[in-house]
Amino acid sequence: MDEVSRHVSQYDLQTRLHQEWIEPDGLGGFASGTAAGIRTRRYHALLLTALNPPTNRIVLVNGFEATLETDSEFYALSSQYYGPDIIHPRGIDSLIDFTTRPWPKWTFELPNGLIVTQELFVPRGKSAVFLRWGLDRSIEAITDKLILSVRPLISGRDYHSLHRENERFQFERLVINSKTNAAKNRVDWQPYPDLPVIQAGHNGRYMQQADWYRNFLYLDERERGLDDAEDLASPGVFTWDLKHDDAYWLLTPQTPQGISMPAAVDHGLWALLTPRELLRRSQFANRTIQASDAYLARRDLGLTIIAGFPWFTDWGRDTFISIRGLCLATGRLIEARQILLGWSKCVSEGMLPNRFPDAGSEPEFNSVDASLWFVIAVYELLQAAESVNLISESDEEALLQAVEDILRGYRQGTRFGIHCDSDGLLAAGSPGLALTWMDARIQEVAVTPRIGKPVEIQALWINALRIGEILLGRTEVDWRLSQSRFLEKFWLEELGHLADVVDVDHQVGRVDSTFRPNQVLAIGGLPFPLLEDAKARRLLEQVERKLLTPVGLRTLAPDHPSYRGHCQGGVLERDFAYHQGTVWPWLMGPFVEGWVRVHGGTSAVKQSARARFLEPLSKSFDSLGEGLTHIPEIADGDCPHTSRGCPFQAWSLGEYLRLDLLVLTEYTPGN
To answer: pTM score, two decimals?
Structure first.
């Protein structure tokens, strides 16, 4: 290979390794991977299912090895990355195209001229993945033999963990008593006794041939300073004769969330299921709105929002921020109602939980702002649904009761020192905790503790008080006085911006004047701005100059001594950088809305904002050139603002959609 070809091949490999795709099932499970077909995370899997949707996620089938045998050659259709740094086999060398439209599809061109396609999709609402391999039959084969062989690579582990070779793994195929056609074309495994059975339906042949594949290397885990090696078991091999028919392979767990294995897994089943899924996906106005559907998942008998794929489940703060874009802006008011009603039942001592642990233990009430974001979301849902008569009287009562309980709990005082102080502002926090969205902790020590009265918490609190007056007809704390005290205590005239925290560590008069993006919530992102006119303009100009990037706002200005321009390295390095300069795309929502308000909110202003802020953000995250789908959690503060963190983040996409469909247009959901 000449130097130019080698450079191009390496570029393509690195690009494809960072182009991730996800196929969620709507239950909290998913299939995911990279365009290269190489797993780079422990979370990349072919069949990952949620035993207690959307939690208790386990990886059942991690991936597969695929080869095509002709009369004289074996051609790889898959690639694996092994330690220390070896790619084998090298299906990547034959990969000429990858697309996610309408679902992930790979196209390989083999040296003998054959074109082979591989595609997979996940039926919505079921824990299953359906794969198909086929030939471009317009090209005449130069061989009489075309045998596709596929080896499943299996673990059976918690999705946060890694798997190693061990004697407990059960390779044996389960005995199926039935003599039906389904039994002949179905293979069942149960890698460990406490896990569900894995069912594999197919239209080929299966041969038991147990083996271990050792030392897979996950590049993204290595980059994040985490354990990065894994061993996977392969119980046997499936074969198909592609000369006569396409290959079909259906994987599903034997659980209530799985698919009942049909008598035949073949073209007929593909022709039955794919049109349904195509029709469902075609009903979304564009790919970005379609992507929003990925985050809606089932919890018990209701719905919830997954905070991000592949490692988050549903979090309170993330749900109530992202619901405004994912559901309200897209007109999915029924889903928004169901989500908020479900959460309304969880109010405890005036607080909503911020996280439901995977292990089924008690919910974690460790956030001061999640409950306030809930109040905002309820208010905007009731506004959006008013003209369509969507909320019944009993549903409205339940939502308003939750709002009242939150306001009362915060006024009287609740967990972690959260209480309305004598000045009408909200105080919160105690040592060792990080109750705001800047919640990184290292060895139980908060990186940005922000104990006292954080600026965005006051914006949320005063908005919640105003909403309480509107919805409940009363309020025991006068929001007007609270807003007046806010301006007195937070505005730093000599600096031209708001303090980040006042009464720091509950010491009256102590001020943290660090320039952070939290202050933009006082001018945008919430129904009622706290700053207007000259003060708002001065603040906005500084935020734009110091914090704005094409992909979001930095969490700290570059001229600050604690600024970190790259969020990479091990856990400690990343946690230190997480809110100390790292860019967060979700903050673009409050910033752009504030910018529009400050500049008059006219149609021309909105058009200008779309061109200046929304379009560059969209282009930055359109990795495949097929139109924006997902937006990551974070990016580096320094150029070129490389994407970091969770690659598919709900509130990042939610705020983009809120800008696109509400703030920058005249669109009204529900009409």
So the answer is: 0.94
In degrees to the nearest 10, what's the CA dihedral of 157, 162, 166, 171? 40
Contact 64, 213 (CB under 8 A): no
Q: How many domains does the chain have?
A: 2
Sequence letter at residue 492 = L
The answer to whether position 670 is within a domain reads: no
pLDDT digits (tens, 9 = 90+) for 192-240: 999 999 999 999 999 999 999 999 999 999 999 999 999 999 999 999 9
Encoded tokens for 202: 């197919």
Q: What Cα–Cα distance (Å) separates residue 19 from each residue in 37, 311, 640, 665?
A: 10, 17, 17, 31
Q: Which amino acid is at 61?
A: V
Tell whether 311 and 276 lie within a shared domain.
no
Q: Among 281, 297, 321, where does a domain finish?
A: 281
pLDDT in tens, 341-353: 999 999 999 999 9
| 262 & 297 share domain | no
Instruction: Tell me how far apart the 2 most distant CA atoms of the chain are, in Å.
Output: 86
| Beta-carbon-side half-sphere exposure of residue 433 (alpha carbons within 13 Å) | 18
Q: In whole angstroms, what is the distance from residue 445 CA to residue 143 CA? A: 65
Domain shared by 36 and 111, yes or no: yes
pLDDT at 646 (0 to 100):
96
Q: Is 669 part of a structural domain of the chain?
A: no
Kindly list the averaged pLDDT for each block of 10 residues, start to end, along the chain of length 671: 49 86 96 97 98 95 97 94 95 95 95 93 96 84 84 97 96 61 78 95 96 97 96 97 95 94 94 95 94 93 92 95 98 96 94 77 87 98 91 96 97 96 96 93 90 98 98 91 97 98 97 98 98 95 98 97 95 94 98 98 97 96 88 96 96 98 72 37
Q: Are residues 431 and 568 in the same domain?
A: yes
- pLDDT per position as a tens digit, 474-518: 888 999 999 999 999 999 999 999 999 999 999 999 999 999 999
CATH number at residue 133: 2.70.98
| Cβ 283 vs Cβ 292: under 8 Å | no
Q: Which of the listed residues 281, 298, 323 is the one where a domain comes to its end?
A: 281
Q: What is the C-alpha separation between 170 and 176, in angstroms, rounded? A: 16
Same domain, yes or no: 291 and 261: no
Please answer whether residues 438 and 456 qualify as being in contact, where contact means their C-beta atoms are separated by less than 8 angstroms: no
Phi and psi for 339 in degrees, rounded to 5? -65, -50
Contacts of 176 (CB under 8 A, 6+ apart): 183, 186, 188
CATH code of the domain containing 431? 1.50.10.10
Q: Quick one: tokens of 376?
A: 């905002």
State the residue range of the domain holding 91. 31-281
Q: Is 26 domain-assigned?
A: no
Task: Specify the pLDDT at position 142.
Answer: 63
Query: Are 304 and 408 part of one and the same domain?
Result: yes
Q: How far is CA 553 from CA 44, 99, 441, in A?
A: 29, 30, 21
**Can you tell me whether residue 30 is helix, strand or coil?**
strand
Task: Look up residue 107 and give its DSSP letter.
Answer: E
Report yes or no: 558 and 629 within 8 Å, Cβ to Cβ: no
What tokens does 189 get? 């495994």
Q: How far is CA 452 from CA 444, 510, 567, in A?
A: 19, 9, 27
| Residues 556 and 414 grouped into a single domain | yes
Pair (547, 398) in one structural domain: yes
Own/partner contacts of 312-316, CB < 8 Å, gap of 24 or more, are 312/646, 313/28, 313/54, 313/55, 313/57, 313/355, 313/356, 313/358, 314/54, 314/356, 315/354, 315/355, 315/370, 316/343, 316/352, 316/353, 316/354, 316/355, 316/367, 316/370, 316/371, 316/373, 316/374
Round to whole Å and give the CA distance between 655 and 570: 29
